[in-house]
Amino acid sequence: MVERTLGIVKPDGIRRGLIGEVLRRIEGAGLKIVALKMRQLTAGEAEGFYYVHKEKPFFKDLVNFMTSGPVVLFVLEGENAIERYRQLMGATDPKKAEKGTIRGDLAESIQCNTVHGSDGPETAKFEISYFFSQTEIITR
Ligand code: GDP
Fold this sequence. Notes:
The chain is an alpha+beta fold. It is built from seven helices and four strands. The chain has a four-stranded antiparallel beta sheet. It is globular, with a radius of gyration of 14 Å. Bound molecules: guanosine-5'-diphosphate. Residues 58, 61-62, 92, 110-111, 113, 116, 119 line the site of guanosine-5'-diphosphate. The site of guanosine-5'-diphosphate (GDP) has 9 residues, from helix 4.
């Protein structure tokens, strides 16, 4: 099934000049970028995006990190795109992520893990509409 998923290059990835490297890996894997923009998130936007984690001990740190610099937001499209992009990203903790994955090769820590990707169809729907209006997503 053709799916869409929401991805982010997180502030650590931008600080280290990894936007191109992340997008190159995504395109190399055959996933289509159908929307793309750079934003500085407000605390409110980051809290709303990660609301499922609001009771977690790391929530405040996560919001501080996600607002510590700009992020690059994008929508990917492709057959089974949600799972394929999760595979490409690797495990949340870079110590556990396989070599050859974005996090395994590039991430700094469990928090500063370079990229985000939706973890399922419902999440993808919520996350895409959280950051993109319909007219910003290009059918191609
Ligand atoms: P993901 O779907 O792989 O991004 O992982 P989660 O949904 O579990 O967590 C969301 C984000 O919170 C992760 O990508 C990390 O940036 C951060 N995070 C997750 N677990 C921890 C943790 O134990 N400590 C800290 N500081 N951050 C975490």
